Amino acid sequence: MSAFAALRHLSWLSPLFDRAKARLADHEAERIAAHFVTHLPPRIARDPAEREAVFRLRHAVYCEELGFEPQRDDRRECDEFDSRSWHAFLHHPGSNSMAGAVRVVTCNDRDDALPMEVHCPEALSSARLRPSVFPRGTVCEISRLAVPAHFRRRASDRFHGAAMGGIDPRQFDATTLRCFPWIAVSLYFSAAAMVRLSGRHHAFVMVEPRLARAMAFVGLAFQQVGPAVNFHGLRAPYYINRTLLLEGLTPGFRRLLDAVEAGLGAAAEPPPHSDLPGQGG
């Protein structure tokens, strides 16, 4: 065990190491921001073939690997929310495949509900920060973040939760951060960029509390707005808005967010979804 690894176990030094790792991560984010979109460019799924690939990736992660949803004969994981969602993915040019995907579910009229309002209404206990208190056209939900197994080769990317973009700060290398899960971070930032591009101001997400704490490590300071409930494991609802998002990011991660958003393109309108089913199939 290295001296650094031994010292980090001293409880009084833990906050110092956390801050040091955060500074290292921020520096690394700034360094790779200009190059990341070349090696794993983020894209919005705009045509039927790209959305088909997203649904197949989600089936591999959510149905086959995690068992959160039943496996389907057509090997496509999609539901009634996909027809009004923005879908983003990270393209891997070397294999011409997707390194991960995420969606942002939007509401277009007052009858549209977010997934958490349908599946976990009991978790939305905050009187001030809940989807129903905002105009429908201003709210959205980040969901279905998935990273396929073959893009999680490093030890830090194989811990429980990594398939859904989990971040485990305990695994970061003290000097190089080679184990930092940049795919997961870039997917979160792709979702944040889609929230901004879609014109929505209020974003919600259902995640495990420990994953929400890990997201705070990179400056995504989600606010818990209800109790944890049993939905694909113990999850709680969280809230963030566009102002809080930008205020929480350090300069390095802000540059990475800008690079991801530039890679997605300044789309003025959501991608077309006329080919998607109204119900999961």
Explained architecture:
There is one protein chain. The protein is 35% helix and 17% strand. The chain has eight helices and eight strands, in the order ααβαββαβαβαβββαα. It has helices at 3-7, 14-39, 48-65, 115-119, 182-197, 209-216, 242-248, 251-264; strands at residues 42-44, 85-92, 97-106, 139-146, 202-207, 223-224, 229-230, 234-241. Strands 1, 2, 3, 4, 5, 6, 7 and 8 form an eight-stranded mixed sheet that branches.
Number of strands: 8
> Could you list the spans in which at least 5 consecutive residues all have pLDDT below 50?
154-179, 274-281
Distance between the termini: 51 Å
Assembly status: single chain
Largest sheet: 8 strands, mixed
Helix-strand pattern: HHEHEEHEHEHEEEHH
Please tell me what the overall shape is. Answer: globular
- The number of distinct helices, counting runs of at least 4 residues, comes to 8
Rg (CA only): 18 Å
What is the strand and helix layout of this fold?
Blueprint: H1 3-7, H2 14-39, E1 42-44, H3 48-65, E2 85-92, E3 97-106, H4 115-119, E4 139-146, H5 182-197, E5 202-207, H6 209-216, E6 223-224, E7 229-230, E8 234-241, H7 242-248, H8 251-264
Parallel strand pairs: 4-5
Antiparallel strand pairs: 1-2, 2-3, 3-4, 5-8, 6-8, 7-8
Helix pairs in contact: 2-8, 5-8
